[in-house]
Design a protein that fits this description.
single chain, mainly alpha, globular, three-stranded antiparallel beta sheet, 14 helices, 377 residues, hpI Integrase, Chain A
Length: 377
């Protein structure tokens, strides 16, 4: 373990007949030997104990933790968060700078729960830079995004030895309560109006893929012809690290094509500009959804164009992501199991599908109400 952080503490787990048990391992600075400690089956206790041992190691082996300003930490953050999406790193940096601006804490170690509570209150008072059409008061959901990003950043600071412990860790009262939103389902007749209002044939094809396959915006923008298998009728959602094209979950999955998707992509492939490479005739453009010059549709433009299209079609307010929600809801209406829906849509957990991607009353609840009605005559 040479070259490791002297304050590193490893959390281990072991599966036994009675379940999973946890333990800790670290290097004793006095002897240089590995020490261990059993923590039972309580993961929360193991994590708390790990923080205590890590703090003791830092104070004993490393001395006083060096003082770091928030701005210096913000500049270092891209190196600490390597592997995360660039947009995530940028938003985390913005949240930390906003905390520093509103609360004037300056030092990383000065961020406490009291400071964060003050930040929440000041953040709710006003939006420092409201855009056109944006309200001055900030929504709780926006504040919660800042809080999540700050909490994540402080965990990176702890791992880097810049903090003894993350003050926001295991704080149940951190987040503001948010009003639950109703899932917006774009029904078939509304989608028909969108298609009628759309004049760009390539964007019309993109809408069909979004509605029938439930793909995310970035996945649509990054969809390559190499990931479209017309013979087997499947789309491959893949990571292309060298191009910076990573899926949200970083996982690869294959999605069987809906007949509408297969039809429209087959027609696009037939009409696409071609080149001969390795004895094969292939599309000249790398990406599926492009302008005539081969430049792909940008993700932000796809969303803005959808907003304009909704207004032209004269339907109730909807976002591009609502097509993904509609895919989930319509699939469950047809009797598709929610666990299968999770796999098709690439969601991390079925609870996400249940909470954010189901816009209908559960059939279980309907059956319960029928029983109640029958019981009371």
């Amino acid at each position: 373990m040479a070259g490791r952080d002297p304050a590193a503490v490893w959390l281990t787990k072991r599966k036994g007949k009675k379940g999973v048990s946890y333990g800790l391992r670290w290097i004793c600075p006095a002897t240089g030997k590995c020490k261990s400690e059993a923590c039972g089956r309580n993961l929360a206790f193991a994590r708390e104990r790990r923080a205590q041992i890590r703090q003791a190691l830092r104070e004993g082996a490393l001395g006083k933790i060096p003082e770091t300003t928030i701005e210096a930490f913000v500049e270092r953050l891209p190196d600490l968060m390597v592997g995360r999406a660039e947009s995530t790193i940028t938003k985390t940096q913005e949240s930390l700078r906003l905390l520093d601006k509103l609360c004037k804490v300056r030092r990383l170690s000065a961020i406490t729960r009291a400071v964060v509570m003050d930040f929440r209150a000041k953040r709710m008072e006003r939006n420092p830079r409201p855009r056109r059409g944006q309200r001055a008061q900030v929504a709780p959901a926006t504040v919660n995004k800042d809080l999540r990003q700050i909490k994540s950043a402080l965990s990176y600071a702890e791992d880097a030895g810049l903090l003894k412990v993350n003050p926001l860790l295991r704080w149940k009262g951190l987040m503001l309560p948010e009003p639950e939103k109703q899932v917006r389902v774009v029904e078939a007749d509304e989608f028909g109006k969108l298609m009628e209002a759309c004049e760009n044939p390539t964007y019309r094809a993109l809408l069909i893929v979004a509605y029938r396959a439930g793909l995310r915006r970035n996945t649509l923008a990054n969809l390559r012809w190499a990931a479209v298998d017309l013979e087997s009728g499947s789309l491959h959602v893949v990571n292309v690290p060298e191009a910076g094209e990573l899926t949200k979950s970083r996982k690869i999955r294959a999605v069987p094509m809906h007949p509408d998707v297969l039809s429209v992509l087959t027609a696009m492939h037939r009409q696409a500009r071609k080149v001969v490479a390795g004895g094969e005739v292939l599309p000249k453009d790398v990406y599926v959804f492009t302008w005539p010059n081969g430049e792909r549709f940008k993700a932000d433009w796809i969303s803005h164009e959808f907003s304009r299209l909704v207004k032209r079609a004269g339907i109730a307010h909807a976002t591009l992501h609502d097509l993904r929600r509609s895919f989930s809801t319509i699939a469950q209406r047809c009797g598709v199991d929610k666990y299968v829906v999770k796999d098709l849509g690439g969601w991390s957990d079925v609870s996400v599908v249940e909470k954010h991607y189901t816009g209908d009353v559960s059939e279980v609840h309907r059956a319960a109400m029928r029983k109640i009605a029958a019981a009371v005559g």
